[in-house]
């Protein structure tokens, strides 16, 4: 399973965990993971502890994700990303749009 | 009213073939029956016709081949032993004639030896039937082959369709590649001071590398990377290249080009698609390197003297196409470069190259190459060598793009002489511009003035020189006249950055002051004279003293004056030194620029 999703008991926090490579191949699953809870959830956590790599297409998917869950009001944290992924996200200035924890 | 003629229902044959024994067009299958014994032929014909099939009969191998050509049957029942051409030989001919269409051939034989029967299949038959014929077995075999035939036809038509589709796709890619190659081909990349390795897949990786020269001679270079792969990634390169090449040729500076590209991409790209890029400007005259970096790896500078990493530009901006232009940081950072310094740009394919253990080459390994004290001239090859060593036998990944620009104060636009636009006959005109302090703060009026000038008097072959004169006079008026900057600052160690820093500060604070530019053109025989007058509201300067210094070759900062004089017939100062006028002469036919 490339992707797992956890919803907190009160339905407010959705944690999406991506395993392996985060690229266009998980596009459909990723979309479904946040679409399903768009209405109720207020906070999203993207757990990248088991993600080895993120490509530019996936970075584009992050922007679409952000728009879908509130744009500038979206509350998304990216957690446990490895050094290379943080470097890529910072290079793209995504730390100004997402909380990178 | 006449009733339409009634459609006669087709007479249903006495023995209609079941659906599985029909051809694709709904006709009953046509079977060629080959046997030298007339009685047996008639028997088979009778059996088949009762099944509702069409039958063609042949009494010998040769007749069978002829009949196959004329009748084009769907299936053949072939006797083995016949005088003259036997069943095997006839089968061989028929196989040759039928090419890649599938014609089942069933041998009909009195033989019962298993080896003999196996031979039937080896000699090109698809199956065999033994005499005496069992009608039920005959029917079952014909049905089975009819189905197989249909399956074969379906696969074949899908295969043909796929092949056709592939041919189309290939052709479209070739066309697209041709278009993209033209887009990518920008003359600037042929400069001797630029070395680059571009992935052969670059275009369909969405990578874009362009170089072009401003009319004033500065090199602009852009390396960028669209998200994703394939045509969708490549498609955006066309407008980007157009803007980059067009605006650079008109003299626009990097921040305005960045803003324009962002604006365009914001409009045309779907969300999730963006363009990470670096744009740099190399100003050989002022030893100044400026860069804007949005979402690509650091630009690295290798110092010729230090033989070490001497500087870098790090991404400070969003990629293009993500944010609205007013939220985008378009500013460039500038550093001073020295002759022989090398500037390296690369796509993430370099740090992210992998070896067989799936480890990444990494930014650290790349930068290590900069700290091993290599001769500047070998560093480029060294990086590629290290990369190859690292990857080892692991697939030679083809997504590495690496560019090296050597700072050579004497390198110039290789295409400067190939401007095809002919000058228009000389005419008389003049134009004035006046810029207030607020305008001067955030706007570079030089490209606009050049455009007006070049559209009024087609002097494209002179544009580099005219731009140089106009820019020198204008910048003198701005930097020294209005902002009162001291150019000796630039000559001091570290003063270069300070100079531009002070300029930014003073520019931000300036409240009043104006610069007036007057362009006056007069015809003169087969050519003309363009007078460029620039007046500022500053206090002026002791121009007598300055001109004397220049004449006596004293001081180090009369460079601008000398450059203007080298192409103009006169340069005079008036008023308190706050009015400067240079006259640029030209002639039809001098195309040297």
Descriptive labels:
heterodimer, A: 101 residues, alpha/beta, five-stranded mixed β-sheet, two-stranded parallel ribbon, 3 helices, 7 strands, 31% helix, B: 593 residues, alpha+beta, Rossmann fold, Phosphatase 2c, domain 1, Heat Shock Protein 90, 3 domains, five-stranded antiparallel β-sheet, 20 strands, elongated
SSE arrangement:
The complex is a heterodimer of chains A (101) and B (593).
Chain A: E1 3-7, E2 13-18, E3 20-22, H1 27-35, E4 43-47, E5 51-54, H2 56-68, E6 76-79, H3 83-91, E7 99-100
Parallel strand pairs in A: 2-4, 3-5, 4-6, 6-7
Antiparallel strand pairs in A: 1-2
Chain B: E1 30-34, H1 38-50, E2 54-58, H2 61-71, E3 75-79, H3 87-98, E4 105-109, H4 114-122, E5 127-130, H5 135-184, E6 194-197, H6 202-205, E7 207-213, E8 219-226, H7 231-234, H8 237-249, H9 254-268, E9 275-283, E10 288-294, E11 299-303, E12 308-313, E13 333-336, E14 342-346, H10 362-368, H11 379-391, E15 402-406, E16 429-436, H12 437-442, H13 446-456, H14 463-482, H15 495-509, E17 514-524, E18 527-536, H16 543-551, H17 559-567, E19 570-574, E20 579-587
Parallel strand pairs in B: 1-2, 1-3, 3-4, 4-5
Antiparallel strand pairs in B: 6-15, 7-8, 8-9, 9-10, 10-13, 11-12, 11-14, 14-15, 16-17, 17-18, 18-20, 19-20
